[in-house]
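quick one before i forget lol
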Amino acid sequence: MPFLEHLEELRWRFLKIISVVFVLTIVTFFFSDYILNFFLYSTKHLKYDINLQVLKVQTIFIIKLEIALIIGIVTSLPIIFYQIWAFIAPGLLKKEKKYVVPVILFATLSFLAGSSFAYFIIVPYALEFFLSLAPPSVTNNIAIDFYFGFIIRIILVFGVVFELPVLSLFLTKIGLLTPQFLRKYRCYAIIIVFIAAALLTPPDPTTQIMLGIPLVFLYEVTIWISYFFSKKKDNSV
């Protein structure tokens, strides 16, 4: 396929992704009140009191729009992954195309696992840490938009980094990654992992460590995934 036709196909697949995200965002907006209450659940079982405040007239509306967009993107992940796969599939062998369903399912579940881990484990610990820093004479009054920005950032970061095994599988299948390479640079990778954890999370050691440890674990998982699929690839040659 000529280069311009590749660009045209990429454009159409991108438009399909945008259309699906747009429709699901609109649908999600009608349920934004329930989702809003779900995100507020973390504030109800904390050791320290927290008072969320609305400081602008349009704050709640903007938050609902952001929630609808994020959930719209998350629920569109199977379609997004499929469109990405369909774009690169013509360059793959026929026997490699049979992995489309497992890869899409694996990628979606990895993102959901990372997001769930962040919301139910990391967010409560992070909130407890920051709220505990306030002296007894200070009341924790926090703008609700800052609160949502804080937890959404953590949730999305963990969701994305949990895609590391999927990336390993993809790069191994196209021959750009080998388990030998991953093992050789393991020490350097661990250092980079904790530097990335410090940059991606709020500036407290608890959250950074709780992101760094799963990242190290995921790096070990990527080695096994790369080993499995590279061995399977060699046996099929």
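fyi The chain has a mean pLDDT of 80.
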